[in-house]
Protein 1
Amino acid sequence: MTLPGSIPILPRIKRLFRPADIQVSLYREMQRALALDQSRFPEAISLPDNYGKGLPERAVEILIARLTYAPGKRVLDVGYANIMKSHAMMLRSLPSPRNLTGIDIAEPVYDASEFYQQAHRADITHTPFDAASFDLVWCISSLEHFGMDNSGYTADFVRDALMDAQAVREMLRIVAPAGQVLITVPYGRYEDLGTQRNYDREHWQSLLTIGRPLAHVREWYFRHTFGRGWHEVDAEQLRYVGYYDQANAGAGGLAVALMTRT
């Protein structure tokens, strides 16, 4: 089965839903963390012992996304067309009223109407939205793909090394005062993996520098080890970590930024 333009849809569907047991485990880990006292967020994030052991970074990402959410917030989900099942399960669990909008350069490979009240096929660097249109923008494991080879998702992509910086500027433009932009990326030593980047300090901090004059920027760093699972660390401890180092179906290190618009 193919989409117009001969883009295979079956591999995209497999990426979205395989393997099911991992996706369910990711969601269950999020629930396990939510059962802890998270009242200090965003000053602190509490993770259970052995959190997400053997699992990809989505275990941390969907937890933080859930902690930023409140009923009625106008939420933009960047890169919604290929969300993982665990992400979809998190969306399904959000208390009402939900006001979710998706944006992506690709068409979704699932029925997005269950989760999103609006959906746009558009480039996040040049959106159709007015300034201050959203209270919360999620960019979860999407920024690292911007400007890279996205032929596995759509033929309508551009190779551009500056696209991630352009996206950060646009997300800050469309979020309202006191609103938040949540960005997560794989992090450690710099790697160009073709379809995505593994960010290092230099590249990551260049993006955060864009936000600092416009927002309060809070940073967290997490590492996966098979002894402890995902746990918070200093950024320096990730300096030499490569994307595939942990064989956990995802990244070995994760950087998270929460930008609160001033």
Protein 2
Amino acid sequence: MNRMIVLLALIFLVGTAQAGNVYAAGGSVTGKISYEGTPPPPEHFTVSKNPEFCGAERDFFHITVKKGVVQGVAVLIENLDYKTGKFKKKGKGVSGKPMETNVATMIGENCAFLPFTGVVERLGSGKKGAPGLQITNNDTVIHNPHPFEVRGAARRSLWNKGLPEQGDKLNELLRVKKGNQVKIQCDQHDFMHAWLRVATNAYWTMAANDGSYKIDGIPAGKYNLVAWHPILGEQKTEVTVGDGGSAEASFTFSGPGRGR
């Protein structure tokens, strides 16, 4: 009897583990990010506050290209919405990855917000599902992070808080409404900029320095794949992912991009 109970318990645990990781056996999308042409020059700033620490002048690269690869590009699957552990696709619930990364982490260091770009997941509507932002000041001068929800040409201030001392840290919600981008600027130093793309599911990645990327564990189906850069904009394509298969999609950016 005891052996039978143990055997049934093991079967239950194995079955539960397999069911809980059904997304792991899904397909994947891979590709490369590149830049064609000559990137625009950096924006030049004359430093008015804390020049003794930040330097008298700064050059800020809104677009960074290394060996033909634009840096800081996020790749996301767009037409999957997370609902209670299921992704709704064409009216049917599809098991998928759970969303976890709803707090983005940045630092203020050497008078720059790092990293320049990132992704944060919105878990749902309202305050409970709002993504968060954690910023630590590693400098000995005050920084004043000020995030804005960006939707087209419109910008909406989310909050404005100071980090006066080295080691100060804040952790605040980003209560975005309809926009899917957040710009963070420093109200003390006009050359400090960073961006976040707001995702509505866990299927995203930041491209590597060599431009390669991979998103895995994707349920079989057709999806809108988006490559995003805050200045160069978005590029979209449709991909078909087979069960356990792999799709390929590469993106080439060019030009100076839009306003800052």
Protein 3
Amino acid sequence: MTQIVILGCGYVGCALAERLDAHEVVGVRRSTDGLAAVEAAGAQPIQADVTDPDALEAVPDADWLVFAASAGGRDAEAARETYVEGLRTAIDHFGARSSPPERVVYTSSTGVYGDHDGGWVNEETDLEPTTEKTRVLAEAERIARERPPAGMDGTVARFGGLYGPDRYRLQRYLDGPVTAGYLNMVHRADAAGAVRFLLEADEGRDAVVNVVDDDPVEKWALADWLAEQCAEPEPQKETLAARLEAVDSDQRRRRLRANKRVSNDRLRKWGYEFTYPTFREGYHDAISQFLADNDES
């Protein structure tokens, strides 16, 4: 039976653990707070800090290593500590064992592409990260592919904007205002499902793959569709220029300007079948719950 270690077994990691029930799975969390959720997902819970090699001694050997840790804070310094230092520490630690992993999958973000004025990007597109945090993510991608020792292949899975249970943000879209620009999304089920596919189908060794759904959607169109489905009035809209005027953070402005459509052709050609190929299927449960709650009130 394959031994899998998920470093950072949180929102996506627990969903991944649930889908790997044919394997032996260990889920690692930085604190004790989420260990019950790891156990509920069917994984062996272990507390360890990915930046601390001594703490990683408590984690058993892995055939496959998944690095899905999230930063302890929102700033670039916290991101660097987790994604760069943590990933480097994990690869060095597990790679030096007598029985090292044969694969490591690092979950990155499509934010590394930067701004392409609404144009299409794919895995061959040059990276143009526009914020300190996305530059850190791009650096971590290089570590994932270049640092593993011989016999340990790295894979970078670039997630789009994650949504799903507890992260639908439905009311925010219904309330508005909604800023113009494209969204590249992936439901949590497919973020986890794609990583499982990469491992079990033995795809993506020493490669990068975008994990986004089939339909990048303009935010205004998404908001109007959600309002229609929920029998609510169309929300207020906001141009990008107006939104930028109201923001006092240069980092935030650069993030808002990062407008692109991300292709999932590579993942599709490898054979992955989406549970939620577009936002229309992905928001079904949230819309049904919204309508049921309104009927009761």
